[in-house]
Amino acid sequence: MNVVLWIIQILLAAVFAGVGLAKLSQPKEKLRDVMRWVDPVPPSQVKSLGAVELLAAAGLVLPAATGIATVLTPLAAVGLVIVMIGGILVHLRAREQQTSPDGRRTEIQGAVTCAVLLVLAAVVAWGRFGPYAL
């Protein structure tokens, strides 16, 4: 199970480092093409969310890999659970307002993606706080 947790941690870190870096480095107008939910959100909030995601990505892997302050790994996972709850709510709230060019509602897909990431982060939090603590 320890190996499974490491795989999930690395996967989550890669995902959140990528999207966090994109939110920090790209202007809101460019993000709008792939993240339609950013439309009503102030740019400062998008950047702040990117910073939180990037820090969480580092928190998932670095403390565990170095053996320094290992309690930060499950705390980072809990933080991502909270962020993903917010993500699900944002996507569901935007569902009626936004559709893709081919007419499909894209925000449901975003909510499902957030739910999957939430479950993965919750598994890491459970495992690293509980039976497979570092």
UniProtKB/TrEMBL annotation:
The keyword Glycoprotein does not apply. It is a multi-pass membrane protein. GO terms for cellular component: membrane. Keywords: Membrane, Transmembrane, Transmembrane helix. The chain crosses the membrane at residues 6-25, 71-90, 111-129. Pfam families: DoxX_2. This is DoxX family protein.
